[in-house]
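Quiz preparation item.
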């Protein structure tokens, strides 16, 4: 039978037209003024699988930090809003809805969001996706609020505002003079108009040498730092603060100082309009303590590794010398010793990993591997090691990722161990894996004690441990820190969703290799 070259050509042309149409649609979405997201209703928790550039701008998050999350993460801790119930009910019914809701950007600032949600259905009338169109209406909300205030409280507002300005001016002056931190107030031209006593004493300068001078000309021009100047010039027009900017400099008379600078625009009207408040924290001693601590960890862990390896080898010889008629209590004691040797070896390994991360020497052996099989094998190994745990595995991604497979297994083992450890009254643990846009998302959920909002903000910091479990559960607080750094080094994201008393879900994403 002869092939039809014309038919093949037409099919190829149709395919090219379809791809061109898709590219055009994506360009159109990214050019839209409104924020647009698409969620996958067929996956657990309806995760975001696409967002356009406008949504990144509105929320302050990058695409990598958005993909895989449920939309509710934008409400942060403001979860009592009635609109959240409206969204939930609309999604359950597969219907569209329109609401106005309070959301929070990555930097914590509030913005009002006008949200349109529409379902996408397949040929079987099943809702497969939801499309959300979002507009920042903060300016309109503020204008409405201001108009109401002006209509009902004009005279009272003038009186209260006058008193507030006086109180704020007095309050600010008191803070500047009494706080145990160096503070400077600059005008719009970066001229120092106020310096507190702590600044003068710390840097051994006088008021005459400081007030009335441009910040970048102070002393021997030690504050004339190009990157700092660039960031400060962005504060007044954009109101973007400078957070924890580190300065390492040798000053006259006082020597080397390492400092954290935080700079904010002062928004008081009148005398303090368009001014910048700079807070300077001296962290020289803390930096030195951290350095000594890192040196100790590195030396101690290396020094402990060698004798421990010898002890483990000698102990294995003792185990092999045991005969069949050996006292069962002796065998039991040997098993306990072996468990503690393994536990100590794991602890030293974590300390070594922490030391390598801090020194920038964490090695990655990057190779492609099947992530589904790796996760499933790790779950099965944990089931064998902890038979009492009720571990469930679900989902698949059918994806190849490039990374250090052993380190990814280490991350999952750490999350599973924590889930078992901190859920003493509930043995059920759920592990799932799904493909979310260009990423693989792995989730580990437990039904344990949960984590408070404040603790969630610090839980991936080195040596941090949740306050109320320190005495009940032993540990150094380095497992999650190491896991977080491993995932970051794989260009992924690790985060936690949790409420006290309701368990925790740790999620991490990894980019798919050669995603199509």
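Solution:
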């Amino acid at each position: 039978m002869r092939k039809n070259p014309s038919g093949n050509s037409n099919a190829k042309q149709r395919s090219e037209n379809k791809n061109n149409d898709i590219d055009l649609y994506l360009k159109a979405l990214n050019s839209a003024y409104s924020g647009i997201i698409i969620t996958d209703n067929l996956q657990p928790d309806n995760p975001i699988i696409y967002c356009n550039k406008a949504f990144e701008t509105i929320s302050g998050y990058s695409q990598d930090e958005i993909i895989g999350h449920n939309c509710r993460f934008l409400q942060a801790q403001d979860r009592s809003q009635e609109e959240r119930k409206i969204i939930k009910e609309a999604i359950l019914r597969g219907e569209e809805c329109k609401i106005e809701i309070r959301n929070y950007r990555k930097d914590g600032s509030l913005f009002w969001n006008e949200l349109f949600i529409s379902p996408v259905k397949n040929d079987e009338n099943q809702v497969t996706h939801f499309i959300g169109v979002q507009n920042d209406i903060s300016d309109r909300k503020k204008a409405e609020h201001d108009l109401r205030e002006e209509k009902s409280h004009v005279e009272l507002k003038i009186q209260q505002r006058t008193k507030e300005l006086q109180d704020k001016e007095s309050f600010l002056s008191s803070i500047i003079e009494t706080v145990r931190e160096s503070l400077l107030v600059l005008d719009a031209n970066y001229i120092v108009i106020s310096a507190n006593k702590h600044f003068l004493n710390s840097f051994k300068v006088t008021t005459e040498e400081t007030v009335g001078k441009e910040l970048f000309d102070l002393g021997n021009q030690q504050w004339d730092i190009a990157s700092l100047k660039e960031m400060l010039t962005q504060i007044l027009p954009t109101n973007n603060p400078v957070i924890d900017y580190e300065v390492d400099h040798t000053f006259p008379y006082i020597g080397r100082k390492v400092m954290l600078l935080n700079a904010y625009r002062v928004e008081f009207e009148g005398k303090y309009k368009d001014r910048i408040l700079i807070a300077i924290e001296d962290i020289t001693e803390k930096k030195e303590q951290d350095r000594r601590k890192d040196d100790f960890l590195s030396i101690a862990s290396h020094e402990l590794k060698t004798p421990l390896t010898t002890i483990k080898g000698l102990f294995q010889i003792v185990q092999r010398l045991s005969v069949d008629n050996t006292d069962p209590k002796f065998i039991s004691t040997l098993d306990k010793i072996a468990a503690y040797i393994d536990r100590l070896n794991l602890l030293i390994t974590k300390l070594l990993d922490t030391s390598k991360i801090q020194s920038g020497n964490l090695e990655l052996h990057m190779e492609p591997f099947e992530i589904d099989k790796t996760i499933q094998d790790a779950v099965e190994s944990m089931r064998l090691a902890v038979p009492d745990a009720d571990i469930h595995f679900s989902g698949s991604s059918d994806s190849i990722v490039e990374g250090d497979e052993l380190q990814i297994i280490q991350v999952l083992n750490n999350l599973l161990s924590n889930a078992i450890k901190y859920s003493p009254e509930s043995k059920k643990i759920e592990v799932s894996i799904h493909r979310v846009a260009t990423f693989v998302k792995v989730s580990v959920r437990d039904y344990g004690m949960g984590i408070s909002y404040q603790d969630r903000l610090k839980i991936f910091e080195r040596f941090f441990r949740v306050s109320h479990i320190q005495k009940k559960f032993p540990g150094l607080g380095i497992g999650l820190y190491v896991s977080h750094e491993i995932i970051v080094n794989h260009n992924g994201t690790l985060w936690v969703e949790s409420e006290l008393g309701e368990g925790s879900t740790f999620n991490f994403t990894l980019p798919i290799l050669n995603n199509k």
